[in-house]
Fold:
Amino acid sequence: MERIRAARETLRCCLEASKVLSSNFDIAGETLEKTSQRLDFLETSITKISTKCNLYNKIKDPLDCAIHLSVSIPSMFQLLCGLEDSLLYSHPSYGLFEYLNTIKYTQDSLRFFTGYCKLTIPCLEEVEHLLVENNFSIADTWCLDENVNKCLEMVEELLSMEERFNSEGGALFSALDKLETELPTLLMDDNIVMEKIQAIIERLAANNRQTNFVSVYVEIRSLNARERLEELGLDYLEMPLTEIDRLKGVENQIYNWGRHLEYAVKYVFETEHNLCCEIFQKNHSEIFSQIVTQSGFQSFFKFGNAIVEGKKEAIKILRLLEIFAVLIKLRPDFNRLFNGKAFWDIQTQTRELMKKVVNGVCETFWELHQQVELQQLPCAPLPSNCGVPRLVTLVTIFCNELLEEEYWLTLLQVVEIHQGWNHKEFNEELVTGEIRNIVTALERNLEAWARAYVEPALSCLFLINSHWYISKHTKGTKLGELMGNSWIRKQEENIERFMEAYLKESWGKLADEDDNVSFGKAFERIYESQSGVELCDNRLRWRICEVVLQAVVPPYIEKHESPVDIKYTSERLERMISALFKPMVEEFGATKCTKLTSKVNRVIADRVSRTPAAA
Structure:
């Protein structure tokens, strides 16, 4: 029983213990249920924290980078605003190099600032992208909207600051405009400061403004060159061809043309060339060519071509030789200054002008003796005064001038060049022989012209006058040396021969008159026919008057003069004959005529004193 009671007690204790345990289990279950719920919440919280930590780890580097880069942007922005004011409210004329340094510093700062902005934007964009990619699940709205987006918009706006500075109306654009405005002032200055100009050019070239600078430079320097040339008085370069043909003193214009061309090349364009070389260095040729073209240099070629295209005359050879001499003298300067493709037009014009000059000289020179021969039959009646034909004076003066060293050496050079172009040999005898041909043709012309006179006496006077002129103007000259002493002696012999023929055909016939009446009529006829004759030289006149007086007066005194009433006394004959053959008054005065009469009177007195009648 006791065992049963003990067992029952034991069971009862166990039952109570089970109840307690069951109660505890219920409590533990509730606790576990709560714990389970808490664990779920904790798990969710830890997951969120883990995701947020992962996101923060992802944006840490780009955000850190953006923050570090953005810190310097405000201070740089303030610096640029200060530089902008300096560029806008100052001028290079007050301090060029300081202004240039400000421009360079501004440009460097803008590039640095733009680089910072370009580095910052990708970092901010990456942060924004990561936040969006995670659906803003853990992102604060204010962080995204108020900070990241705002910063990104501001930096993107600042990125356009460089473009604003360089756009029209911007600080840098205006500053470069001021430099271009300052440049003409420097270029027009007589004392050009190369350091300033080169500094401006470097800055303009660094900003791709060299095209504007080149146009300004060409305009200013070509204007300067043109003004310097206009000071020389170059209006004659623009004369039309017809005026040049009519111009008697064209040699003065050609002389000036040579001087002015030399001045233009050696002093005007030499200066411009050196300036271009210093400023533009390797690229100077094209710019220098524009200056030369716009300065009016082409007018020199226009004038030269007008002379070449003028009438073919002997005197034109001298003018063309002068042009050739100038071109040859300036050839080294032309080759040095006007070389390269940029000067193709000037090179072509120079060669063409040289070619025209050489051909013009040679064509005219080789045709001269033919032109002289063609005038054997004069187009107009010969002058009744038996004067020296214009062709004789022109040819004589021309040949003497041509043989002067100034022209002769140039002519030989021109002919040698022309012969070379035509693959022919050159010899100086070609040229000297042609001059002899010209003089020989002129002599043949005189003989032909003399035959045109009806009266033999006038024909003789014409030949005497012309040959005396030729002899006088060749003796002791280059032409005389070329023709030779024998030729000069022949001229003198011809004069003596023509004088004998002249006396025979005129005054010598008076000796055949037997009475005073027939003598007077014959004398008057001869005197009247020769009263209009003008001799080219006073010495020739003295000599002919002396010969005529000796041929007329002494025989007249011996044969015809008597105390009886006569029409002509010996004194009257002397006065009348002494008044013949007077040259133009402008050239010879009356005092020489008085001397001539006195000299003739002495000759006659000597002659009369030796006659039988005087005995």
